[in-house]
């Protein structure tokens, strides 16, 4: 898999114009022109850059794999360093919006270098992009216009600090708008929780816990066709608990039923639930229930 260590090498591969700054590039077009389009397809690649793009397809469509996504209303897409990128059948004739690409070293020594890692949307899939209202688009465009102006001017000792401050503002607005998107998709959130629990039940009924251990959140997310981070963030916004916490609750609930069967040892219950180490199961159970598995069995054993 090809990896690009510099922004210039990455943009050259994409067949896009070279950057004005060795660690930063800004393409923006929402007037009469159109954004430059990258090469039509690519095998899996990685790079050391962050990307923030607003896509508005005016004519044509964008395909990712065999799936088509609607970008006509404006969708913000976020990519983090070393994420695997691959695309094919990109049929885009005319596209507006903006694309900001910056090397991770551009943030070195700033507060944003740490803060940016806390934004979950850099790990979301393309189909989980942030869809903006016209008013939200306008707010984003205003910020990007300021970034572009600073980028295009003769840069001085203040330029980097100003641009990073504006990037910080852009990401904070994105975070706010994602909160709104989660709230507006409550029905979807509830359905996702039902699907999550149903998938765990299917794994459990098929003895997959016993054969393969506790499924990872990524495995469950993949089976639901969502990204691991989006699954956890969606459940967290709706229920106050992450996907990992819901998985643990499921395991504890199953454990309670098994613990009341006197012919099973604590270790056997742990192994049947996919725990490789029974002591870890006992610690998790006590953390969640306040008592050990043995104490639970004694307290609730059937007469």
From TrEMBL:
Gene3D superfamilies per UniProt: Homeodomain-like (1.10.10.60)
Keywords: DNA-binding, Transcription, Transcription regulation
SMART domains recorded: HTH_ARAC (SM00342)
Residue ranges constituting the HTH araC/xylS-type domain according to the UniProt record: 198-299
InterPro entries linked: Homeodomain-like_sf (IPR009057), HTH_AraC (IPR018060), Tscrpt_reg_AraC-type_HTH (IPR020449)
Pfam family, one: HTH_18
Origin: domain of life: Bacteria
Protein name per Swiss-Prot or TrEMBL: Helix-turn-helix domain-containing protein
Species, as recorded: Croceitalea vernalis
């Amino acid at each position: 898999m090809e990896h690009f260590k510099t922004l210039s090498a990455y943009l050259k591969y994409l067949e896009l114009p070279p950057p004005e700054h060795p660690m930063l590039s800004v393409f923006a077009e929402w007037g009469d022109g159109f954004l430059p389009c990258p090469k039509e397809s690519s095998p899996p690649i990685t790079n050391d850059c962050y990307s923030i793009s607003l896509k508005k397809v005016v004519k044509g469509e964008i395909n990712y794999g065999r799936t088509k996504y609607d970008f006509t209303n404006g969708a913000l897409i976020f990519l983090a360093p070393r994420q695997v990128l691959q695309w094919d059948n990109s049929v885009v004739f005319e596209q507006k919006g903006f694309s900001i690409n910056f090397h991770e070293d551009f943030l070195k020594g700033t507060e944003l270098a740490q803060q940016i890692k806390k934004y979950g949307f850099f790990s979301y899939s393309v189909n989980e992009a942030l869809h903006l209202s016209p008013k939200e688009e306008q707010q984003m465009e205003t910020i990007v216009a300021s970034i572009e102006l600073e980028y295009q001017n003769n840069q001085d000792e203040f330029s980097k600090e100003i641009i990073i401050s504006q990037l910080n503002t852009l990401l904070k607005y994105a975070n706010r708008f994602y909160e709104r998107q989660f709230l507006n998709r409550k029905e979807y959130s509830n359905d996702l929780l039902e699907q999550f629990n149903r998938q765990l039940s299917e794994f459990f009924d098929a003895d997959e816990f016993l054969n393969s251990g506790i499924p990872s959140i990524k495995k469950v997310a993949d089976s639901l066709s969502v990204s691991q981070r989006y699954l956890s963030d969606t459940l967290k916004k709706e229920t106050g608990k992450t996907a990992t916490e819901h998985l643990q609750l499921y395991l504890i609930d199953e454990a309670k039923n098994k613990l009341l069967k006197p012919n099973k040892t604590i270790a056997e219950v742990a192994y049947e639930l996919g725990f490789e180490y029974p002591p870890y199961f006992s610690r998790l159970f006590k953390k969640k229930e306040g008592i050990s598995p043995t104490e639970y069995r004694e307290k609730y054993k059937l007469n």
